[in-house]
């Protein structure tokens, strides 16, 4: 494998990555027989990212976040590696499918569920009930489970408390995502006591996802003041969280025998693993290396996932138009959510059109060399959302590619 490490390429950092010209030739050569759009995952980069994440975890197991992968073959691939164990799923139906498919026997559902059919299936199968842990942050979620299947008519349901990680430095100031209402150690202990007093439940874990640290890049290009503000916020928020998380774990442990304390994400694997209260970390996006992680100083994954669109016309000498392209990521409506034209190097969006639903004009010197039928390779802003656009990923190993169904390709619409 001809690679080099940590090379700055037009404002981005990359890990295992051949030079741009060679990478383009390799991807084109491996998938040239396929019609576009085509999405690929470079297995060399994927495996290298997995290895480097393991090293950053400092010996603590990594639970793979399935929403960032959304491909069964790649979930199985990373779970076969040392240091990776268990899946963090995003819905209960997905968790049931992963267990029944033999992908894993350890699934933590990252978000509370209101899926009554899936709850009935969970409650009817002791093997599922032993393998799947549900997320809760309020007693009403326990009541919903009881309404679906009475406590005496089901195995104990495994539960994990979602501890809100957001930073509240003063008054109404709230920095971080709005997740759980359980923020303080006292609130965590109270919920744990409630769970302990309810028949048919077993509290086994605590999760605390520090999105304002793991999910916010601290080096946004061309925004020095914003970068400084983010770094200052994170340097103050992390010590507060460590102290509060430890107190919350102690409060919960007074009412339950905890099996795990989960935290972190790709952007904070090293920092979260260093917290003594945490027993496992979560990562997923770092396997694919989407563009949102180009803005992190401490560690950047290798770009491993790409999608190609075909040039269909040339409206001007320095404009090449591809078919489609509006694969915009979820989140705040800003430029960082757009895909990035990556290969060939030197392309950019037309400011007043951007990435279009039907066509996308691309500007720049590189556009002069493109002709109808040529391909432009893009990187998506977020990891797993790429898989919502295609039925299969082409897994590129050297100069060859083999197809692997995405969740969509397997007929699995876990978010409807």
Question: In terms of topology, how is this protein built?
Answer:
Layout lengths: L6 E3 L2 E3 L5 H12 L6 E5 H14 L5 E4 L6 H8 L4 E6 L2 H9 L6 E3 L6 H8 L2 H6 E5 L2 H10 L8 E6 L22 H12 L4 E8 L2 H4 L9 H30 L6 E4 L5 H5 L6 E4 L1 H4 L16 E12 L2 E5 L16 E4 L4 E2 L9 E5 L11 E5 L12 E6 L2 E6 L11
Parallel strand pairs: 3-18, 4-5, 4-11, 5-6, 6-7, 7-8, 8-9, 9-10, 10-11
Antiparallel strand pairs: 1-2, 3-12, 12-13, 12-17, 13-16, 14-17, 15-16, 18-19
Description:
By secondary structure, this protein is α/β, with parallel strands linked by helices. It has twelve helices and 19 strands. The strands form three sheets. Strands 3, 12, 13, 14, 15, 16, 17, 18 and 19 form a nine-stranded mixed beta sheet that branches. An eight-stranded parallel barrel has the order 4-5-6-7-8-9-10-11, surrounded by five helices. Helix 8 packs parallel to helix 10.
Number of helices: 12
The low-pLDDT segments are: 1-18
What is the number of E strands?
Answer: 19
What summary fits the major beta sheet? 9 strands, mixed
Question: Mean pLDDT, nearest integer?
Answer: 91
Structural class: alpha/beta
Whole-angstrom Rg: 22 Å
Helix percentage range: 25-40%
Distance between the termini: 40 Å
Beta percentage is 15-25%
Using the alpha-carbon principal axes, give the shape: globular
